[in-house]
Amino acid sequence: MRSRKTILLAVFLLLAVCTAAFAYGRERTPEYALGEIAAGIEARDYEKVTRYADLQSIVTGSYDESATILCRDIEKLSRMYPQDWFFRHDTAFMTKYMANRREDDLKLILDTMKFYLTGNTPITKQEGEARWIADETAKFLQEYDAEVVKVETEGETAIATIAIKGHDSDYGRLAPKLTLKVTLEEQKDGRWKAVRVSNVKDLFYPVVDGIENYWTLQGWQ
Questions:
Q1: What is the number of domains present in the chain?
Q2: Helix, strand or coil for residue 29?
Q3: Domain interval for residue 43
Q4: pLDDT tens, 71-108?
């Protein structure tokens, strides 16, 4: 259980911190899409969020890239966090382990996002776990501010750079300063849609460190 929640929270935090009140622009611009995503998450409006964010693509891409780094750097992570038994394996073991759990993990993350945005009541055990993560995400969102620093557009692709700053609080100090980059693509109808986190590699270690500190904060070490 601990290993699953560590990875899921790390991936989900990358997505959750995107929810600041971005400035609105004209409807067919990347800035407008970012604003609609933020407004949708604030209003817990699943339909609005999914209109402007491809959650399946974002989650899958972030998960796969994070898993690749995890498997490659497992020995380094073990040295960094010797108290965490999850890192006490080798690359061959972790590669097989993450491949075997990939489908279930992706479903759990997407369920988490849906529970957060809809407030639906969980039925199954896995849905209950997703709801627990969604409730924890709500706590994180209260303790972080985000600001769009710039949006660089080239043709039908744009990259938004978002500065994230934690409050001076227990949760806010877990990942006090992050820079998130989100790739958006123009759709056939002129809308822009967020499709992936483009700097997972840069975020991986700061977020893992925050998650390790999160377990300590909860008294679960």
A1: 1
A2: coil
A3: 2-217
A4: 999 999 999 999 888 888 999 999 999 999 999 889 88
